[in-house]
Amino acid sequence: MLENTIISGFADEISDDIKEQVALLKELDVKYIEFRSANSKGVSDYSNEDAEKMSAYLKENGIGISALGSPIGKIKITDDFEPHFEKFKHTVELIEIFGTKYIRMFSFYIPEGEEPEKYRDEVFRRMKMMVDYAKEKNVVLLHENEKGIYGDNAKRCRELFDELYCDNFRCTFDFANFIQCGQDTLEAYDLLKDFIAYIHIKDARFSDSVVVPAGEGDGNVKAILSKLDEKGFDGFLSLEPHLADFATFKTLEHTDASLKDKGGVWAYSTAHAALMKLLK
């Protein structure tokens, strides 16, 4: 199944140390990384010079970049947008250095207890600014359905794509995040299937929102991967284990407490094995 797809992932969940990340990727024969952070620095905080050094190191070790796992759009909708837009523009600069065309991004956190629709106009204004800039620079923004943002459920994701979808604005589909929002993933897939360009492999349970290896939760991961196979999907499948603590998230709200201390190598290897089982 999905023989033409490429496996990637968030290797900072292995270790903060890029050398340890690369060592396990080589062991698992994974040749791509969704670069989010390494050596105590998030990707959008890399200088051009730092990015050039990191890119060269990864190339030397046969590791390509599937996407930049940026934090763009992961601020409150009530926060000042101007400095964040400058950070976005810098992240776009890094695209060419890292040798990818994709930037993972979000549609802004909504104040707790308030209706997302109250902020719809401002969300769309900001998103359009970023999409227009992406068009100018010929990069592709991949919107992820993160918990608590405007586009956290399938209906509001669909609103974003109905308004802004183009070659430069497409969908990253995250199974676990939908589950943690109470969203049926098959319904989400049906609404978003024409916009999906990238997949995050992460599963969760409805009962307690705990993240589990792919295929062990309620995300319908295998069924949706089969549907993608039927459509001829040939993009990236990006592992995002969230099974143990890692550098950028010292405490994971929806991680099984009994597994938190098992470590990044175990978590990434377990997530990889679960995906390989599903793809057989």
Helix content: 25-40%
Number of strands: 12
Tally the helices: what do you get?
Answer: 9
Compute the CA-based radius of gyration.
Answer: 18 Å
Termini gap = 6 Å
How is this structure best described in words?
- Strand 6 (102-105), helix 4 and strand 7 form a beta-alpha-beta unit.
- This protein has helices at 18-28, 48-60, 82-98, 120-137, 154-164, 175-180, 185-192, 221-231, 264-279, and strands at residues 6-9, 32-35, 37-38, 41-42, 64-68, 102-105, 140-144, 169-174, 196-201, 203-204, 211-212, 236-239.
- The strands form four sheets. The chain has a six-stranded parallel sheet with strand order 1-12-9-8-7-6. Strands 2-5 form a two-stranded parallel sheet.
- The protein has 280 residues and is of the alpha/beta class.
- The mean pLDDT is 95.
Concise structural overview:
With 280 residues, the protein is of the alpha/beta class.
List the helices and strands and how they pair.
Layout (H helix, E strand, L loop, with lengths): L5 E4 L8 H11 L3 E4 L1 E2 L2 E2 L5 H13 L3 E5 L13 H17 L3 E4 L14 H18 L2 E5 L9 H11 L4 E6 H6 L4 H8 L3 E6 L1 E2 L6 E2 L8 H11 L4 E4 L24 H16 L1
Parallel strand pairs: 1-12, 2-5, 6-7, 7-8, 8-9, 9-12
Antiparallel strand pairs: 3-4, 10-11
Index terms:
280 residues, alpha/beta
